[in-house]
Structure formats: structure tokens, C-alpha cells
Write a structure and sequence with these properties.
Elements (H helix, E strand, L loop, with lengths): L2 H22 L4 H5 L9 H19 L16 H20 L3 H4 L2 E4 L2 E4 H25 L9 H9 L5 E4 L5 H12 L8 H7 L3 H7 L5 E6 L2 E11 L2 E9 L8 H15 L5 E5 L4 H9 L3 E2 L6 E2 L2 E2 L1 E5 L8
Parallel strand pairs: 6-7
Antiparallel strand pairs: 1-2, 3-4, 4-5, 5-6, 7-11, 8-11, 9-10
Length: about 325
């Protein structure tokens, strides 16, 4: 497999894991830990086995110690497991982004046999898929709905051309925008400082206040709010902030539509420079910005209440930036 094909496989793995975790949040604590006679006893035990496998194989690939013990009693809730999974996803994204044909063909000893990196990645992805199936069975045994995690469902989501309607938001949308921001960033909460996370997920009143500083847009798909972004006109360009896509709408081109809308606004304001601040662990958002023509700069700010930041910018009307 090529590096790009494996990156797509990693993306599918993350998509499927997120769907499973979202479904598991509806399970009461007692049912979450109940021994149902599975290979790893419970829904908790099986989810933990998946994330532990992903954590350990990632460290094996990087040549790091991987002897951490994941004890079930240390993870009493879905949220506790999600905290670990969030860290794994960020590190997996960074690892996958650096894959090359040469690295994939490199050999390492695994289970007393010399194997290529590509084969061990395939093993891990198959391992996670197999045990997700076990979680689905346990969810159904407990009387809860299980999500679809088929690759074709992922493919339909990720291969869609940008679709949906972009409209200006109003103050009446403030509560829905605040809810979307919270939903989009909750999986990354452990990576923010408390104040940094609070600033990234403003409440309804703060969202309403932002309407006085610049336009806010909403992306809608199938009658539901799928994304949002806002802009502030400044002397040095148009600053993009409060951009997020609903987890259920990722991979459908919503982010591209929102960026296009902001770019058209900036052009109408005769502000050629677009810029934004992001955190190093939002790997998918960073790739979206890069595909849209944004590049990283050394300009401040460098942190948000202790959470690391860096700036990205785009010059739609200017090619040679020195």
C-alpha cells in the first residue's frame, strides 16, 4: 500500500472509532462496565483494548517503550477512555503524515519475525476493526443502538463533493453555534488548558457578542447546522476565528465551503490577507488550511491561556510574499 492509501485507512479507523465512542456515551455507567462474557469482559474492557493496542503499536513504530499497562479500573467512564484516544489520534495523524514508501518497506522484528512497517500498520488497523465489531455486539446485547462503521459509509462521507448551504448567522443562532463548537472540540479538551478550552468553546452570550465584531456564517446540510466560521476585519487583513465542523459532517467539504465564503468576504472588503490561529494538535484542520492555500508563519500569538498556538495565512491576490 502507498503512504496515501494508509493515511486514508488511518482516517477511516479514526472515523469508525469516533462513531463507536459517540454511541457508547449513551450507555449508563453500570452497563458500561458490566461483564458480558466477551473476550475483554465488558464494553469498557473492549474499548480499552482497542485504544491500548493503538497506543502501543504507535510507540513500537517510533521505537519507544510501549510497556504501559491499561487497567480497566483506571477508566470508569467513556470520557476517561476518550481522553487517551484523543492523544493517540493526534499522534497517529502526525505519524501518518510522515509516511514514505521507504519507511513503509523498512523491516523490524515483531513477534519474532522480521516484518515491514506497512504490514504492522495493516495488522493494527485490522485489530481495531475486529474489536470494534465486538463492541457493536456488546452494545446490542445491552439493548443500545450501534452505529454503522462500514468502510463504504466512511467512503460516502469522505468522497462527497462540497455540498450544503452557507448563510449569514443571526443572534438567534448563537445557542446552536455554541453547541456546535462544544461538540466539535470536546474530543480535544484534554489537550487544552482549561482557560484555553473555554476560549475556544464560547457560550451563547459570548457568541452573541461576537456578532458585534464581524460576520458569522453557518453551513447547513440536510436541515442541520454542519459548521460555522466568523471573521473580523483588521488593518492587516481578515482574521478567521470560531471555525468548526460538526463531527458528523466531517469529510463532506463543509470546511472548504466556509473558507470559500470567508475568502469572498475578504475580497469584497479589499483585504487580500486571510489569517487564523490554530493549535498544533488539530491535525485535520491544519491539513484543510494547507489544502486551501494557507501557510504557517512565525507571527504571534504563540499561546492561548497556556495552549500552544501558531498562525497561518493566505494571500489570495498576492503570490510573492517576502
Amino acid at each position: 500500500m502507498t503512504p496515501e492509501e494508509l493515511r486514508r485507512e488511518f482516517a477511516y479507523n479514526t472515523w469508525a472509532n469516533r462513531r463507536l465512542l459517540a454511541a457508547t456515551r449513551a450507555v449508563p455507567a453500570a452497563e458500561f462496565v458490566r461483564d458480558r462474557g466477551g473476550s475483554f469482559q465488558s464494553i469498557r474492557g473492549t474499548l480499552l483494548h482497542i485504544v491500548a493496542g493503538e497506543w502501543k503499536w504507535l510507540r513500537f513504530w517510533r521505537g519507544e517503550p510501549y510497556d504501559r499497562v491499561f487497567r480497566q479500573e483506571q477508566y470508569p467512564t467513556v470520557a476517561a477512555i476518550e481522553d487517551v484516544w484523543t492523544e493517540v489520534v493526534v499522534e497517529q495523524d502526525a505519524f501518518a503524515a510522515e509516511l514514505t514508501p521507504e519507511r513503509l518497506s523498512g523491516l523490524r522484528e515483531a513477534r519474532n519475525i522480521s516484518r515491514t512497517l506497512a504490514d504492522t500498520i495493516r495488522h493494527l488497523l485490522n485489530h481495531s476493526s475486529y474489536h470494534r465489531g465486538q463492541v457493536v455486539t456488546l452494545l446490542r446485547q445491552a439493548g443500545f443502538a450501534a452505529p454503522k462503521t462500514d468502510f463504504l459509509d466512511f467512503s460516502e462521507d469522505s468522497d462527497d463533493e462540497p455540498s450544503g448551504a452557507i448563510r449569514p448567522a443571526t443572534a438567534n443562532d448563537a445557542a446552536a453555534i455554541a453547541a456546535l463548537l462544544a461538540d466539535a472540540f470536546v474530543e480535544f479538551r484534554p489537550l487544552y488548558t482549561p482557560d484555553g478550552y473555554h476560549a475556544t468553546t464560547p457560550d451563547r452570550d459570548e457568541v452573541q457578542r461576537r456578532f458585534t465584531e464581524g460576520p458569522v456564517w453557518i453551513a447547513e446540510q440536510k436541515g442541520a447546522i454542519a459548521g460555522t466560521a466568523s471573521a473580523v476585519v483588521r488593518p492587516d487583513g481578515v482574521y478567521i476565528r470560531g471555525m468548526a465542523v460538526s463531527p458528523t459532517a466531517r469529510g463532506r467539504g463543509v470546511g472548504r465551503l466556509l473558507l470559500n465564503e470567508v475568502e469572498q468576504f475578504a475580497s469584497a472588503q479589499d483585504r487580500p490577507r486571510l489569517y487564523l490561529s490554530t493549535t498544533p494538535f488539530l491535525s485535520r484542520a491544519i491539513r484543510l488550511y494547507e489544502r486551501a492555500g494557507f501557510t504557517r508563519t512565525s507571527a504571534p500569538p504563540y499561546e492561548l491561556f497556556g495552549t500552544a498556538l501558531f498562525t497561518m495565512e493566505k494571500w489570495p491576490k498576492r503570490r510573492d510574499v517576502r
